[in-house]
Amino acid sequence: MIPSPALPVIVPAQRSDARAFSTYLIEHVAESGRRGVPHFAVATSLAPDEVEQSARDRWGKALDEPLWGRAWLLRSSEPRARVIGHVELRGGRVRSEGHRAVVAMGILGPHTGQGHGRRLLETAIAWARDQAGLSYLDLGVFSNNERARRLYAGMGFVPIGTREDAFRVDGAILDDVQMTLALRSPEPRATPAER
Predict the structure, then answer these.
(1) pLDDT tens digits, one per residue of 139-154
(2) For residues 53 and 20, what is the distance between their CA atoms, to the nearest angstrom?
(3) Is 78 left (phi over 0), alpha (psi -120 to 50) or beta?
(4) I need a labelling partner for 67 at 20 to 30 A (CA). Which of 56, 90, 102, 115 fits?
(5) What CA–CA distance (Å, rounded) separates 195 from 184?
(6) In sequence order, what are the beta bridge partners of 8?
(7) In sequence order, what are the residues at sequence separation of 6 or more whose Cβ sits closer than 8 angstroms to the Cβ of residue 142?
């Protein structure tokens, strides 16, 4: 009997993983809009050193600092395990949006459709709610990326608007659907009389 291949593992990203992450992300972005794959990236190429340094910088910031990042990497179970997917949460530009984070994720083409996206999102959502104490997760997804939109909706993300003609990549006009997930009940808002 041939043993079944082991399931890829999800591990928290460390700053020392930035180079492996950069290698994966460049390969992943190159798949966007190619060979029948819908566009999912705003860039068609990335500079490896910039991707690596940016990831290292984000992942080294405390959660109360603007532009922090926390990522989880999907690693193959091959003898030479490599990054084949990721999910990352990024904090906002200002402290007053510290109760929210933006989700970015991706998986290399040969590994999609196997439930890894759901596993990655479950990991990030649990951490955001239970460890970071965040209230909301936000994301943008291109309207032509039906598979990703179904995944996000299935995980509880709700569309809150669409930026039409948000990006133009390789001649394609891309609408950006904004979605959000409430992790806890919102704080009561002050009425005009209470302000």
Answers:
(1) 999 999 999 999 999 9
(2) 12
(3) beta
(4) 115
(5) 24
(6) none
(7) 38, 39, 40, 148, 167, 174, 175, 176, 177
